[in-house]
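[job 4471] stage=fold_predict status=RUNNING
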Amino acid sequence: MKALIVYESQFGNTEKVARAIAEGVATSGRVEVVAVDTAPTVLPDDVDLLLVGGPTHVFSMSRVQTRADAAKDAPTPTRRGIREWLAQPPSSSGRLRVATFGTKQGHGRLSGSAATAAAKAARAHGLSVDAVEDFFVTGRSGPLEEGELERATAWGRALGR
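[job 4471] inference complete, writing structure tokens
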């Protein structure tokens, strides 16, 4: 099995989650982790599992304006987000499993979710989404809540099976 993880991260928290997920997935196969700015538009034929993740901005995936606002305080702002990448989903041959993840503040449903929005966008393009998961940060710029990286690794292990 080969997995590709595409992530968007402003403050580094979503990247940390992506890499923790990769640790878990790697117990069952090969995995590549790439920032959305350099993500391929055509998936290699051997990719079986695609994971897409980003931070929750204003109840959903980031937009140009929300990224610009975050960039004022972010050490590593991205030029584009998963919203734009999923607008033109990468082509793939064969059966592709898809999972989405996100980082967000607050555990309530009213706080929105980039993971849920990404899953909806993927489904709109005919992709089948197998799993959606949120990971939690303590504030706008983080850090991640205690135990979230371990939870991300465990989630990755489960997806890799």
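[job 4471] summary: The chain has a mean pLDDT of 93.
[job 4471] exit 0
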